[in-house]
Structures are given as C-alpha cells and as structure tokens.
Design brief:
The chain is mainly α. The protein is 56% helix and 0% strand. The chain has 15 helices and no strands. Helix 5 packs parallel to helix 7.
Length: 330
C-alpha cells in the first residue's frame, strides 16, 4: 500500500508540474532511452534548456541500465512507477526490523525524494536487502557508505555484475561520467562544513552498523537537499528515535523555507539546516545507542551519582522496631 500511495503521490506531483517532466528521474529516463537507441548518453545528452534539461547525464551508467524498463513508457509514468516500487521495497525492508523506522515515510527527506523522483528509497532498501544490493552501484559514493552498514557478498556480486554489464555496453563510461562530474557543479561531503565535522563522532561507535553509517555518510559527497539523507533513518533503533529525526527534519525544512530567496531551489539555504537538524540528531542517536552507547553510559553514570548525593539515611521513625520479647513464664 505504501508503494501504491507513493507512486500516486509522485504521479500527482509530476503531472502538476509538466514543465519539469519527471523531475530528477528525467535524467536516467533519457539516458535509458539513449541506450535503447544505441547511443552513448554521455555524448547525446547535452545542456539544452532549463531543468531538467540543463546538464549532461550526471549519473553512473548503471543508473541508466536500471531505468531501462521505465523508459518503455512516458517519463511521468515511468518516474511514478520507479518511485512507487522503490518506496514499496523500502517499506518491506524497514518493516522486517520492526515498525519504529517507519517514521521515515513521514520525514522531510522522503517527501523531498517523492517530489523529485529520487533514488534514496531504493538505496535504503538496498542497504537492508542483499538481493537489491546492485542498486548501490547506481550512486557509488553514497552506496559505499551504505554498504558498510550491512556488508554482504550478494551485494558485492550483483553490483559487480551490473558494473561489468555497463562496461560491456560502454567501456569508456567511467571517464565520460567523471568528466561531466568535474565540469559541472559537484557536491561536497558534510565534513567539509564545520557542523558536518561533528558527525564524525559517530565513528566512536564504529563497531555498530549505525555508527559506520552516519560517520561514513558524512565523509562522502552528497546533495544536502534532504533526499540524500533519508538513509540516516537507519540510525534509529526505536520508534522514539525515528520520531525525533522526523520532527527535526521538518524543523530543518521550515528553517530552509524561511531563509530561501528562490521559489524553485533552496540548496545553499538547506545545507546548515540539514547538517544541524538531521545529521547532528542522527549522530546523537548513534552515541546514545540504547544501553551500549557512550553518551547513554555517561548519562547513566551522572544519574546514579546524582541519586547517591540526594539519598538520605532513613529517619528514626522509618526504622522498623524489633518485636518486643515476652518474659518466659517459669
């Protein structure tokens, strides 16, 4: 049901903004159509107008291969189907570990991913389901950080096969892709910002999947425009953690909108809010870490020491009296 609702929601957004076609999914959709026509998408897709035609194909070729089934239908329908299936896979993957993380579907990153036809729900599903591990190759920088959360040989094998297939189709695509990446506006890692550096504290819990996830995500380039941060909800161990992240994500979205000067894109305005109200709460959740985290242990020690200071000896009235002894009758 979540997948159907997500697909319908994405379809409504796309149809309501026909000038933006299928938003960000337009990029892999066009590249997949180029592959079906026997063309090199890095050569035939050139900047030719406003968004989403303003740039070369910005993704690795595996993303275009994955989009081929959706390129057989119009872009708007293909984008809605892609996002609906991705959201359904994410719901299935999250529900297997309990319902606490389902708060992710109410978060600002999920809403932004739906509005833009982005890959982050599929990336979350691929992190938890080894059978979908090949999807991590579609966004290799984030994919590497997510792979560290729950490594699996199946993900390595399927991802390698997908990359090998892409190299058979276009052997030079990594060079062409990197040329486009460096020629255009590229994203920076959160640790390049002062607030983002604090997320490295999550690596104090390197042995936990959540610590590796948050710490390594902070080290890789990404778009700090909410949707790339959806995998951070995997740091939530409980429903309370997921709820806190969801609330702070909407506070971040509100802060961005209040400071935004453009109706179309507020990327620069979003960065400090995403770092301060999504990355830092996720880092705090990792450090708390249930009963095992260093922050939780420190708070527990402080709590016990405070209780010891305020504990008073019982008063005389509170000390039970020994029962009176009865004289023995001779």
């Amino acid at each position: 049901m979540i997948g159907v609702a997500a697909a319908l929601g994405a379809l409504v957004v796309f149809v309501g903004n026909p000038e933006f076609v299928a938003k960000d999914f337009t990029y892999p959709w066009r590249a997949a159509r180029a592959l079906l026509a026997g063309d090199d998408p890095y050569r035939v897709i050139r900047p030719s107008g406003p968004y989403p035609y303003e740039t070369v194909f910005p993704y690795p070729l595996p993303a275009a291969i994955v989009a081929i089934p959706f390129a057989l239908v119009p872009a708007v329908l293909g984008g809605a189907l892609f996002f609906g299936l991705s959201a359904g896979a994410m719901a299935y993957a999250l529900s297997r570990d309990g319902l606490g993380r389902m708060w992710a579907f109410c978060s600002a990153p999920f809403a932004m991913a739906a509005a833009l036809g982005q890959w982050s729900p599929l990336m979350v599903a691929a992190t938890l389901l080894p059978s979908l591990g090949w999807a991590l190759a579609c966004k290799p920088t984030l994919g590497a950080a997510l792979f560290a959360y729950r490594p699996s040989w199946r993900a390595v094998l399927t991802g390698t096969l997908l990359v090998a297939l892409s190299l058979l189709l276009l052997p030079r695509w990594p060079i062409e892709w990197l040329q486009g990446v460096f020629a255009g506006e590229h994203h920076r890692a959160p640790i390049a910002r002062p607030l983002g550096l604090l997320a490295l504290l999550a690596l104090l819990r390197w042995r936990s999947p959540e610590g590796r996830l948050v710490g390594l995500m902070a080290c890789v380039p990404q778009n700090l425009y909410f949707y790339d941060q959806l995998p951070l909800w995997l740091a939530a161990r409980t429903g309370r953690d997921g709820f806190v992240l969801t609330v702070t994500s909407w506070l971040a979205f509100a802060g961005m909108r209040l400071n935004c000067t453009s109706e179309l894109f507020c990327g620069k305005e979003a960065e400090p809010w995403v770092l301060g109200l999504i990355y830092l709460p996720a880092t705090a959740i990792v450090l708390a870490g249930g009963d095992r985290g260093p922050l939780r242990r420190w708070l527990d020690r402080r709590s016990r020491s405070g209780e010891a200071e305020w504990t008073e000896a019982p008063s005389a009235e509170e000390i039970p009296l020994a029962p009176a002894t009865q004289p023995r009758v001779p």
